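Render this sequence as a predicted structure.
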Amino acid sequence: MSASGPNVICPAAGDFHVPVPRLQSTRTASVPSAANATVYFVRSSGKNVLPWPLSNFAGAIRRGTQPRLLASLPTRADPQAPPVELRASWTESALLLELYTGQPCDAFVDLDGSGRLGRWETDVDAGQPGSPASDVWAGSARLALRAHCAPLGVFVGSRLVPGGRVGATREPDGRWKLFAVLPRTLGPGAADVYIPPAAPSVSGLRLRAGTVLGLAVTLRPSRPDDPEPFIAQPADGEWLSLFETHRLMDAELLD
């Protein structure tokens, strides 16, 4: 995932298909032309870059303690290199994620616990009494997974999540694996979401079969003494969006 030229890393467009949001979602998909089917590692050059990297997206997360492949992303910069991969699984107490990259990276996850309703609506209240909040951890409440450089941990915005765990290892194929345990009790999500006045109270994720989660993942190289450790797309750095920028993909929790 090292940059090849000033702006982008491109995969072979014919290697993978367009990830389509689930039919139950209010989200929609737009399909780029073949010429626009590129993945990018963006620098803050101010130049336009194409917004839809194409990946194999499974659309389902299976119950278990061993994460399974959810999305993969080859790169044209080195076709023989192992791909960037996202793996996931769930238990009744946590969502488990693994990310495989060519260099040490921090991960930023937009996570919508009410995925069937879309990004701007929820049917529960994950906040405190008198302070409603959604189960959508996005925007200023985006999840940051930091395993290489301080500050270390799982964060909602800049708030450290109690019970969250994150780590990193070097794999035999040369890739770096970032693994994270996102506890069910993530706490309050974004407040800029419609929350019904009588919405039932929850402490975080509803981890049960049939739940649809919305996901967006942004990666960027880890930086020591990072001046913006909780910013997914810093003005002075590179970043990689696994899916269309700012759009969440839907994955259903299955047994």
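Summary. The chain has no helices and 15 strands. Residues 13-254 form one domain.
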